[in-house]
Amino acid sequence: MTEIASLLGKEAAMQARLHKLRTDAAKRGALLPPDDPIAWVTAIYRNTFSKPLGPQHKEVFEWAWNIQRGVRPAPFVAIWSRGFGKSTTAETIAVMLGAREQRKYLLYVSETQELADSHLLAIRGMIESPVLSTYYPVFAKPRVSREGHSRGWRHNRLYCGNGYVIDSIGLDTAKRGSRIMDARPDFMIFDDIDAKGDSTAITRKKIDTITASLLPAGSVDAAVMFVQNMIIDTGVFAQLSQEQPPFMRNRILSGPFPALTDFSWNLDRTGAIEIHGTPTWEGMDLEACRGIVRDIGITAFRSEYQHDITNEGSLFESVQFKHIAPDVVPEMWRKVVAIDPAVTNDDGSDSHGICVAGASDTGVVHILETWEKRADPELALRKGFYFAIKHGCDKVLIEGNQGGDMWLTLWDRIVEESGISEERIPGVEIVKATSSTGSKMERASQMLVDYELQRIVHVEVPSCFDLEGALRRFPLRKPFDLVDAVYWAWSDLKQSSMWLIG
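^ that's the sequence the OP posted. Answer follows.
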């Protein structure tokens, strides 16, 4: 009861303070600001937010609007696609909490001091908005000392007329226990923390700075917001997206939101890239995404807009993958399908991995097509059967460490139901990982040599980029199933090719 009474008391105090702000504004002749977060944002920054706000924008503005003094809210982590207005949203919230006097001191943190200062410059422009000053005339002016000297705008500090302070700080310059006068930050925004090329050691150092120096420097009621797209698989935001992140486990997680769900792409008859998918925000529709792909290419789009990224420091980090166009693939003297299936289909399941590969008469293994997805086990086998018929494969290899002969029973039923003539049906074999084949890492390491010698070639179809993503993240992040499927196909073809070429 005491805790409830305390919360009710704080809520009443907040309402009283807001009533006083409105009364004072009315006495000064200022307009009364809207009392709804979305109306507030669109009224003051209608030109900035000219596109309709999406659910993710509304959620974070509602979170910010309901922040109260003396109450520590759950941290908010926004992992959104590039182009979704991440920084603009964070900068608007920085203004909102100061103008409404919900917070006194904001620390705006970025990877470098220069980057943090650039965000501060954008916030200054928002504070100087003529529309904002009609609602909050005192706040919108720089703080002035008793002697009449401006204490307001500097490149790394904004000191607003109502006493609200915003400091910019880079992780490269962060110092333990950051404070202004006797105040600790009661609001922190972490924006643009990760950088491409960050090693795991650099990320660990960044997390240490955040958790050991900056977060502990906050006040007891400090509100915290993290915002960025996920640009590396081992970065701060990749870790915050995990089910059990290394810190801030009580965070509200918004995303990761890609630009498109059900994303796919292909080459049209002219060789141009054509993408497909469902937009997650109407402010960035499919045609806009297609225009972006035309400007920056499919690889950059997948990284910056789809969170479809690869790991640095993987087993295959230094490999320069060799590609070949589909129309110049040589004749294959043998072709196989390898399936690494999962026995269940739920949120905790592994993915199914399928690899179609062939060997040329020189012994070079060509990866013709791949598939990786969490799905029903029967669907995975049906997909493997489809690939085998499509490519005219000699054999289908099924890893049977889990499931065993169950896969053969299921395979026989799929073959029988297909109605395809017997001469077109490939042979099937159960393969198992044993001490002689080694661990997943040992198996992948065997393939690595042939990749480095460019004795494994990727045919340039859309799925080859999914394969390269799987290889780049191995063994840093699951799923590993596609890498294992490639191993089984490569191993079988390599053994038969060694016999062929002597």
